[in-house]
Amino acid sequence: MPNSAARSTPSAAAALRPIRFLHRGAVVEVDGLAPSTTVLAWLREHAHCTGTKEGCNEGDCGACTVVVAERAAAAPGGAGATVVGELQLRPVNACLRLLPTLDGKALLTVEDLRAIAGGALHPVQQALVECHGSQCGFCTPGIAMTMAATYEQHCEAASRPTRQQLADALAGNLCRCTGYRPILDAGQRMFELPPARLDTASIAAALRALAQDPPLAYAAVDPAFGGLRRFDAPRTLAALAALRLERPEARLLAGATDIALWSNKGLRDLGDLIDLGEVGELERIESRDGELEIGAGASLEDAWAALARRVPELAEVWLRFAGPPVRHAGTMGGNVANGSPIGDSAPVLIALGAQIVLQRGSRERSMPLEDFYV
Predict the structure, then answer these.
(1) Are residues 238 and 136 part of one domain?
(2) Per-residue pLDDT for 321 more than 70?
(3) Buried b / exposed e across 75-91, counting CB within 10 Å, b at 16+?
(4) Which of 82, 210, 272, 307 shows the smallest number of beta carbons within 10 Å?
(5) What is the full DSSP assignment across 155-218?
(6) Which of 72-76, 261-265, 308-312, 359-363 comes out lowest in average pLDDT?
């Protein structure tokens, strides 16, 4: 790999700036932390918000589940997300989310729930207390945040989830103590309590202000490996293609559900990163000429939701593909491109006759998906 200092020489076209996002009602600026810092590490070690727990540190247990909010208008996908007012809400694993990917978004954690309820226990929390939905309590903060997203989803739709729908929503949250029955009881009870809704208008206003910032170009020294590591988040496909040509040695980042493990568990140097998460063109899911076009940056949740609408038999595959926090973060393009033997998208897509479109600079070519692997 080339020398990291040479690799990270900033482009003259993109001035470096701090990471800026909304947390606990205020805009936070982060500078000086390595781009590979996870949201979980920042919360516990730097923000000193220790409600979010580290369980497995690999996206399996859900103890670290948080909710990330962004403007619905800025997210062209969203078929599987919860849309409340102007916001799109997604429960994700804080242990797999790299901190720079929060730029321009809002981070909601278990510490926010009482504030949402005006200082009282949030209906989610009160229901868990009443239904004995917590024993050791280590997994409870993540469960509470998944339930909070579900609460907002169904309150917005004026609906009530079935126990099976609650179980599906909580499939990414493991609990060794309760056997889940009292948690599902709490999931039903929370809708019977006095309502407490998220103030989406104030968050949306803050996010509109953050959207005026230029695309994120961030760099900081990684003390584990020495030298600068850079993180760029272009906002258009053209800018992404140009940046990829400019820095071909940089690693492309989408949902980080694999890459974060290289750092968390493998202790690998991720090098410079180019984030696909701000490129709206890559998140689109469109029907055109009888075919379904899924952008490489569309989340697994959105992509599988779209596939299941066209082929209802795939609903069972969708619900068994990882847990919701992983599906909301991971992307269909990433799942296909990494070629993992446990990447469940490829066999289904090949059976459906899928084609992929590859781009380098301004050049494009397409091929059957099966040819991509041989």
Answers:
(1) no
(2) yes
(3) bbbbbbbbbbebbbbbb
(4) 210
(5) HHHT----HHHHHHHTTT---SSS-SHHHHHHHHHTTTSPP----HHHHHHHHHHHTTSPPPEE
(6) 72-76
> Residue 225: phi, psi to the nearest 5?
-125, -15
Whether 74 contacts 212, CB under 8 Å: no
Q: Is the pLDDT of residue 8 over 70?
A: no
Residue type, position 251, single letter = R
Q: How is residue 95 annotated by DSSP? A: T
What helix, strand, coil percent values describe the chain, rounded to 5? 40, 20, 45
The predicted-structure confidence for 109-128, as pLDDT tens digits, reads as follows 999 999 999 999 999 999 99
Report the domain count for the chain: 3
Q: How far apart are the first and last CA of the chain?
A: 26
The residue from 234, 251, 275 where one domain ends is 275
Tell me the CB-side half-sphere exposure of residue 97, using CA atoms within 13 A.
29
Q: Identify whether residues 186 and 286 lie together within a single domain.
A: no
Tens digits of residue pLDDT in 36-87: 999 999 999 999 999 999 999 999 999 999 999 999 876 665 567 889 999 9
The C-alpha atoms of residue 327 and residue 308 are separated, in whole angstroms, by: 14
* DSSP 8-state assignment for residue 42: I
- For residue 138, what are the CA distances in angstroms to 49, 52, 283? 15, 9, 34
Measured CA to CA, the distance from residue 291 to residue 25 in angstroms comes to 42
Residue type, 163: R
Q: Judge if 24 and 48 occupy the same domain.
A: yes
At residue 222, what is the residue type?
A: D
- In a domain, residue 350? The reply is yes
